[in-house]
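Posting for a labmate who doesn't have an account.
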Amino acid sequence: MEVIDEAKGDDATEEDKKEKEYTVDMPDNIDGIPDEAVEKTQKALERGKIAVLKYVEAIDRACEVIKAMFPDVTRDAQEASLTVLKEFKEEVKTVPKLKLSDETKKAFAYHVEICKTGMPNLFEEPAEAETKEEPQETDVQKLFKKAPKLSVGAINDVINRGSKIVKEKKTLLNDLNDLNTKMQIVDNLLCLQLVEPNPDEKKAWQFFQENADQLLEVFPSLGATELVILDFCKTLGNKILEKMSICRKNWTTLGTQLPSKSPSVSSLVYGPVVTADMLSADKIVTAETRATLLNVVAGIKKKINNNVTDYVKNLMSKEDAESFQYIVNDLEGMIGKQQNKPLVPEEKLYIGYHLSKVRPHVSRIAELNASKTVLEGNYVFHDRPEFTERKSFGSPRGGSGRGGSFSKRGVDFKKSGGASGYRGNKSGFRGRGSGFRGNSPASSGYPKSFNHHGAY
């Protein structure tokens, strides 16, 4: 009976824990505590016991750290609230399901806020960092954002020539003015074709062409780096103008050999200068489009892709070496993206002339490389298959094949004396004396046999 009574007593104790209301007394002084922080803590306490335990644990840990950091500070109010919270924690930590009233949550939240006031600066909002106003870009900085990026070589040029360029600033200004004047009257389409293969050159050309007036206006205020960039643009501009001059010279010479002249000059004739006595109509290249010309160049490159090429190049004349450089190394880059564009007569004549100078050297390279491969023992020999007599195929009507024998209804018919024996002696294939595949002397028809495609 005693055991039963004890069990009942234990059950009563558990029931009492579930039904008991756990409360926290309000602090004596709650002045200055913000309502928003209290409401936030109250909302968190809706989680029940887990929130109570977590809050008390966090406050206890933080207070220990703050005490060690500020040992001389008095915290009577905070210590009193922390004691209340710790006692409440011990009271409820074994309760299976803790349900807190709104008043208890509110009192708990106020004690939490009082404890937080003993942690100076920890819960204060950080001061907003002062935003420094970025200085506005100058006109020069905005302008040179469009400038081409300096390569490693150009950066070294800044170091080596910067001071010299600054001293010769007036000379550079005169050169830039002269370049700007010339750029106003040039064929812009031809210029863009000439700079297209090199993106850096294209960007530098367009930068100066589009901003020349502004650059000359701010020129007095430019530093060494800007002056080196402009010096690079000047050098490139003069280089492009020189290329244009060569194109026009070649174009004029080519026009003297043709019945009619094309309206616009092409960049494909930028290469070795030609004269009228070098050219003849039989040297016109047969390629119709730039894509076809690319295939021709690719075929040449394939033949010279060996170590014999340098040996032959060293023996070329200066003119042939220039033609070789133009066809093998320069032409492919000049063709650009418009590969389906047809070649005009001037381009065909110019390229055909240089191809006629290059092809003999390409043949020599290919022949020497083939001989070298054999003599070095690197040639792979392939055995030719022995010739075998063509096998005969069965006739759809029982025959064994051309000129052979076949069986029809159990009777063997043999070819004899040149007649096919298919439908009558000496008849040929179909019809008397037709001789389509017959060998009879009397038969007429084709002297040679041909296959079903019509090829001999």
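Reply:
Got it, the structure tokens are right above this. Strands lie at 406-408, 411-413.
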